[in-house]
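A quick word before the example. In earlier lectures we treated sequence and structure as two separate objects. From today on, think of them as two lines of the same record. Here is Activity-regulated cytoskeleton associated protein 2-like written that way.
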Amino acid sequence: MATLTEEQFARLMTQLQPTNGAPQASFAQCTARCAGSRDPPLVEEFINVAFIFIKINDDDILTGLSLLLTGVAVIWWQGVKTKATTCDQAAELMRGAFAWKKPNNQLYQEIFKTAQDKSTLTDLFVCQKRALF
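And the structure line, produced from the sequence above:
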């Protein structure tokens, strides 16, 4: 059995303790990407992953957000990034640009356009219709 000197033990404990009480998170670990598709569920999923689940301060998120954007979303962000000073503002800008809501008449038509077929589970059918609301 090996023993450690007090100096070796202190060095080991220093290495094992996280800095500032928590490990540092970064966008390097984030796999979420937004290409600018106008699909509200995809935009919400991206916002949840990029802004909520990754614990990074607002300044770092606003600076590094372009790393997670591709296609038209990158171009869009370059034009509006000065309008956002917080993550919440950036999320609202994204929702306004890519997750716009359909007019009520279009929603009504889409909700009643298809009926449940025999091969579709009721739970799945209800979830699909609920997503439209």
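Notice the following. The mean pLDDT is 79. We will return to this example when we discuss secondary structure assignment.
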